[in-house]
Amino acid sequence: MSEIMEQRSAIKFCVRNGISAAETLRMCQKAYGDGALSQARVFAWHRMFKEGRESVQDEPRAGRPSTSTDVIHVQKIQYYLGVMRRLRDAVRRKRPELWADNSWLLHHDNAPSHTSLVVRDHFAKNLTHIIPQPPYSPDLAPCDFWLFSKLKRPLRGHRFETIEEIKEKTTSELRAIPTDDYAACFENWKKRWHSCIATGGDYFEGDDTNLDE
User: Fold this and answer.
1) Same structural domain, 100 and 155
2) Greatest CA separation found in the chain?
3) Would you give per-residue pLDDT tens digits along the chain (213 residues)?
4) Where would you find the membrane-spanning parts of this chain (predicted)?
């Protein structure tokens, strides 16, 4: 087994034993010294294993992306552009004071559809101010640390016949969330950004960062 494969296996072992990405990185650096994987690679493999990946091998590389993949990617980009247009309209109608001086900010993660050239051009054209998302801090995104789990619970176990049924049920659950819950999420989001700043943009998990350090 090559040293790279050995380190990936070690990362997988750490994930299965509940060891954080930051601690896994420290263990790899201690064990392998200058030959240790970079922070970016350790965090990336840690995340993939945490999401259920089993293999430590690289995925086979195709010479050219399939047409179906290209079509799906374009569809995701077009969908996201539609979401952003509706968001701008909502800000204009509901927060006219922010719209007037363009002082509102957008925070989204680094999904490919969010960072595509077409979407970035849309933001530049409309002077949209983006809060950058650190690449290995998924706990900063409200959808990840709050919304998705809140939606999954009432939807779990249901079988839907059509996409429209899924949209209808999801919309119903979103509207059922109390306004105070959204406000609490926003305060939690701000706290997590303070944690990110306190760690110098480095990886952190949940709300455990000591802001006084």
Assistant:
1) no
2) 61
3) 578 889 999 999 999 888 988 889 999 988 888 888 888 889 889 888 888 888 888 765 555 554 445 778 888 899 999 999 999 999 999 999 999 999 999 998 888 888 888 999 999 999 999 988 876 666 788 888 888 888 888 888 888 888 889 889 999 999 999 999 999 999 999 888 888 777 776 665 555 444 344
4) none
Answer yes or no: is 209 within a domain. no
The domain containing residue 98 runs over which residues? 67-131
Same domain, 71 and 126: yes
